[in-house]
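Technical note accompanying the year-one report. For the benefit of new consortium partners, we illustrate the data format agreed upon in the data management plan: each record pairs a sequence with a structure-token string. No post-processing was applied to the example shown here.
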Amino acid sequence: MNPELVRAGFSLSAVALIAGAAILFITGSARSLGEAFRESIEPTLAQIRSRTTRSRSELADLSILVAIGLSMLNILGGNPVVGTIVALVLYLARPSIRRATRHEHRLMALGGFFSLDLIIGAYLPFVLAHVMMFDWLMALCLFAVVLALSWPAGGGETVPGRRWQLAPVAG
């Protein structure tokens, strides 16, 4: 089997995944894909949350910092334009992601899950496309963004020593 033909097949599959992501986003099906993925990894992320005293927004911020670091490594790894753009966009999106993941109470967080699930569902095909293109650093970077948006609510009141309170609402 010719390795160049295999690589070309993976490239075409990646293009199809990106087109599929656009269709999922336009039709609104990205939300159900994001919800299914978020719910499938929620038990694992809840176990990680049970071992830390960090809030949901702090964990999301750490995940975004990891994504920025991976994007910076991508700059050094030979893809400076894409790595720089992704690092800059993620750095500018950090406050928005912290605001989107600020609610610890499960019922209050339900309102934000609609938009978070939409973003997760739109990012997942891009993660798979980068895996098919063997661009591991960018795939890990985008997966870190997906993890940042997937941290479950409800850990703030179960951590010993932390008192649960409502998050301030920006007016």
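Partners are asked to follow this layout when depositing records. Residues 106-132 form the longest helix (27 residues).
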